[in-house]
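A quick aside before the break. I want you to see a complete sequence-to-structure record at least once, exactly as it would be stored in a machine-readable document. Don't worry about memorizing anything.
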Amino acid sequence: MFRGNSQMTGVAEESLPDELELLWTYETSDPIEATAAIVDGVVYTGTMTGVLYAIGLEKHDLRWKYDTNGEGAFKASPCVAGGTIFVGDDFGIFHAIDAATGKKRWTFLTTSEIMSSANYVDGKVLFGSYDANLYCLSAETGDVVWKFTTETSIHGSPAAAGDRVFIAGCDDVLRSVSLKDGTELAQVPLGAPSQASAAVAGERLYDGTFANEIVAIDLESNQRVWTYDPPDHNQPFYASAAVASDRIVIGGRDKQVYCLDRETGEVLWKFPTNGRVDSSAVIAGDRVYFGSYDGNLYGLDLETGKEVWRFPVGERISASPAVAGGRLVIGAEDGILYCFGAK
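That is the input. The structure line, written in tokens, reads:
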């Protein structure tokens, strides 16, 4: 799923080869903004014309295509669980698709676009919609288990930890909701909308906002622990944070990538690019990978922020890397899916 796990931490389960080389490309002819999912040797990626592709990770062979016939673009990323792909489109339809065949299992209609990538927990699928609702559906049937209504649109993906679901939306509030029945447990004012997906690690949550701030929130007291506001820049954060054991990494629309101490919010390093960074960083071993609107895919040393690898795609990148099987896969707005690894 988007960010790799239910807590949305953006940490891969494995490292990547030190020397990444381009292994293959697959041309879809349609812009790709959503992050791919890699499961059991198959890459699943959606395009802006409403086509979901299943492509073999090793031989980049097309397994199948699922087409909405132009009714809705896939800006949300696919979530794959129990042999089913779950993904919403910007027409407001949430799709459950058989991962082996590409056949529709069921659909669920909301009343506005879905940008929120799905989360999966214990047979339940969670996602937000621009109709202001956080939905919890049965993964098996698509029936509503519960829905929680906020004040306005939900763009980011919900994070889940224990018996709680966390969602930050365009109503300037972080909300904690019961996974069991959808009742609200707590609110924390953010002071600005958030379109990023909050990340949960331990008893803290990390998120970027349109107030140009990165915040850390204690989930026991529901209070801010620290706030970082870049002093020389005034741009929002669209990207979601990647959370390592002692630090977080997050990109901003000020063209910078920031690494902050998890406990204090102190800046450990900054890395400049030549384009805004909406691509959410992924930590793989001792490196962090992300794309930029400057058309480059970057690999940095997690400890120092030093650039150790770069690949010039040539078109802007808003999707995030997907990492599995010793491969890094990412799509760009040129409609091409790129796969990197060791030859």
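Two observations worth writing down. The chain has two domains: 67-189, 192-343. The longest strand covers residues 21-27. We'll return to this after the break.
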